[in-house]
Amino acid sequence: MPKRRNSEDCDYISRKIKKLERKLKRVRQRNREKNEESSRNSSGMYFTAYLQCFLIHKHPPCAPMLHINNLLDSPRFENTDTIELIEPYESPQPPESPDICVITSDMQTPENHTTDTQSKVQIPEEPAVQNNALDSDALDILGADPSSQIQYAKNVHTELASRLEHIATSGLTKELRKELNERYLIPGNCIMIGAPLMNPEIKAAVTDTVMKRDKGIEARQKQLAVAISGLAIVLHNELENKDKDTTLSKDTLKQLMDPGSSTQTTSSSPEPREHSSIDHGAGPAATIQSQSDARQLVEDIAASVQANPPPLDPQPEHTWQSYPGCRSIVRKALLRRRIPPSAIDIMMASLASNSLKQYDVALKKWFLYCNHNCVNMYEASIPTVLHFLTESYNSGSQYGTLNSYRSALALILGPYMSKDDRISRFLKGVYRLRPPRPKYNETWDTSIVLNYLYNQYPNEQLALEVLTKKCVTLLALSTAHRVQTLAKIRIENIEILSSQIRIKISDLIKTSRVSAKQPLLVLPFFTDKPEICPSKTILSYLEVTKTIRKDTNLFISPKKPHNAVTSQSLSRWIKNTLKDSGIDTSIFTAHSTRHAATSKAYKCGVSVDFIRKTAGWSGSSAVFGRFYNRMITNTNNETALATAVLAGE
Fold it and tell me: For this chain's UniProt record, which GO biological process terms are given (predicted)?
């Protein structure tokens, strides 16, 4: 017989274990059913024996009772399978005694053996026995009389009773509970009647089941706090009222104060929840003196949880806290780092709106991760951050995305997170495993779009929408700047010279920083190709929009009310122009004009340094050099890029 492999042995053992577990489960079920049946059968026997022992202790058995016992124990009653007539048996005359004779449940009387033929055993009728009054000790042993009724107070008004009965059976609606919570607020000088909040340290350590149970208890305590607040308002008004009779006022106060005290006791007795300030001198922990006491305390808590399980749907409903937004999270993080509140707005201004939009994605994922894992998002450790980044990496995130997450987390966790060598080592590993790659492996030829725009001439006869799209597309190709920069061009910053147009960008853009120069756009006049001259197109656009312009921005909407447009509108116009020219816009976006223009200029011999300067890259930037070979040529012409794009082949 061949030997089993390890995998076969594991499968065989696993099947045997499952088979034994099923067998053990069936045996336990049978034992449980037997125990339940025996407990039901023995409960009546135990009570009968208890009652018999008590009565025998108080009243010794009388002679007829002993006679019946002897009679039933005789051999004549052993065989009950056949029916036979029993001869009368004379018993000695019992003495007159007021004692009570009791026949227990396990004794068989002649009545049990009667058939259709009447038995000859004659038991004389005894006179009715009057029960003796039991003393207090006997009553204490027997316990309270279950037949006694619950004591009720005097009936209240019918209309009031019907409404209270409806509330007790159907409860309050969610809207009504919310209204009552807003109407009866907790008084400021007795805030301890409210539901205490769980400590953040405990909240981060407990499980979801414990959190749901605590939320249910908190909801009940809040409802009781509302009831106490309502009684407190009535009591306050009664105390402040000096016109009423003093005696009546005392009676009213007594009737109102007693339910309030009872409600407050109820709110803390069945399900105690400690406040954030822990009292080390009292409570269950103070009574623990040994290991057995601690074990007993744990057993009591477990029994309490099983006896009072948390509600499946506590009222009001408690769900996860919703995402507060990027700005709120950053503000709270700055306040936790002891930044003065007066300086928060100034520090928030250091973040650009686009940066906040980018960080919002990362912080939302971080918020959900911390909620799911019960982690404080403002005090997370480096291993926790690494676990979060690893989950994002496993979900398909690239190096740029994870690097953005690192920057967003450093904003709320502190600069130590970015400087930690473990985070840096992790990102270096991601860079090697998933290196950043260019968005386009190839680009389109600018001559395709220029030939399309060449046919749209003269400019004065074009529709405003067509002229607007032509102007913004020529400006994007001749400057190689982002659409964000083009959207910030203002008319007062346009300087028209005899040979060129110079445009200054005064607003802050993506690359703006301290001690850095703002971009300057220089556009020459192409007299040999006026059809695609960007400078002449700008002049025509300014002339056409002069009467309808309401804004100082260069580009306005071609439709009423002709307001200034954003960078998204410029991107859409450029993309539509590319599509009409024959460019595949499913691959290339409006930002591809920056890629196509710089590639064309480099091919025509423009130096990388001037490409950087014109397109808005820094002098030491290697972004352009990552995708194209550097070919240095001697040129100092500021209009070299525009000339190469528009005049080069």
Answer: DNA recombination
pLDDT for the residue numbered 10? 79
Tally of domains in the chain:
5
| pLDDT, tens digit (0-9, with 9 covering 90-100), for 588-614 | 888 888 888 888 887 777 777 777 777
Tokens standing for residue 421: 């060598």
CB 287 within 8 A of CB 293: yes
Neighbouring-strand partners of residue 553: 490
Same structural domain, 14 and 114: no
**302 in a structural domain:** no
- Residue 331 to residues 339, 349, 368, 408, Cα–Cα distance (Å): 9, 11, 18, 13
Q: Are residues 454 and 584 in the same domain?
A: yes
On whether both 256 and 346 belong to a single domain, the answer is no
Is residue 26 in some structural domain?
yes
Is there a domain that residue 282 lies in?
Answer: no
In this model, does residue 153 exceed pLDDT 80?
Answer: no
Helix 464-479 / helix 567-581 crossing angle, nearest 10 deg: 90
Q: What is the pLDDT of residues 310-352, one digit of tens each?
A: 444 344 433 457 888 899 999 999 988 888 888 989 989 888 8
User: What distance in Å separates the CA atoms of residue 517 and residue 145, rounded to the nearest whole number?
Assistant: 96
CA–CA separation, 526 and 509 (whole Å): 29
Report pLDDT for 575.
92
The residue out of 273, 291, 311 marking a domain boundary is: 273
Give me Rg for the CA atoms of the chain. Answer: 46
Q: Nearest Cα to 555, choosing from 621, 474, 445, 441?
A: 474
DSSP 371-440: HHHT--TTS--HHHHHHHHHHHHHTT--HHHHHHHHHHHHHHH-THHHH-HHHHHHHHHHHHHS----S-
pTM above 0.85, yes or no: no
Shared domain check, 339 and 228: no
Say if 184 falls within a structural domain. yes
Distance CA 258, CA 137 (A): 35
Kindly report the three-state secondary structure assignment for every residue of 23-43: HHHHHHHHHHHHHHHHHHHHH
In a shared domain, residues 519 and 571: yes
Query: Within this chain, do residues 398 and 473 fall inside the same structural domain, yes or no?
Result: no
Domain that holds residue 17: 1-38
pLDDT in tens, 179-228: 887 888 888 788 787 888 777 667 666 677 787 888 888 888 888 888 88
Nearest to 520 by CA among 616, 608, 609: 616
pLDDT on residue 301: 60
Higher local confidence (pLDDT), 476 or 42: 476
